[in-house]
Amino acid sequence: MADLPHAHAPTWSTACEGDDGATSPGELKALGEHLRVCAHLKGRWFGLHCVLAGITGYAAGHVVTSLITLAGLALLLSLVA
Question: Which residue has the higher pLDDT, 17 or 57?
Fold first, then answer.
């Protein structure tokens, strides 16, 4: 059992493990595709996407607090209007 590879072992290693450390054409192709996707994601709306992802992440972790805050804000707006 000790010789079995770990099920969640990383698929990318930065160690050359005794090799010369040169990249293969397949690795360069995968890197190019990754960089193309990253460049596409950093378009016009990237900043807004990051802000909304942060707000969504916070709200998901603080569901009750977020609901109470939204209810309080709605109550405040109804009293002002």
Answer: 57
- Angle subtended by helix axes 46-61 and 63-80, to nearest 10: 110
Report how far residue 48's alpha carbon sits from residue 42's, in angstroms, rounded to the nearest whole number: 10
- Name the helix (H) or strand (E) containing 23: none
In 14-62, alpha helices (H): 25-41, 46-61
pLDDT tens digits, residue range 39-77? 777 777 877 888 888 888 888 888 898 899 999 999 999
Q: What is the pLDDT of residue 1?
A: 44
* Separation in Å, CA 76 to CA 60, 79, 81: 23, 5, 9
Q: Do 29 and 36 meet the contact criterion of CB atoms below 8 Å apart?
A: no
Question: 31: which residues sit within 8 A by CB, 6+ positions away?
Answer: 23
The pTM of this model reads: 0.35
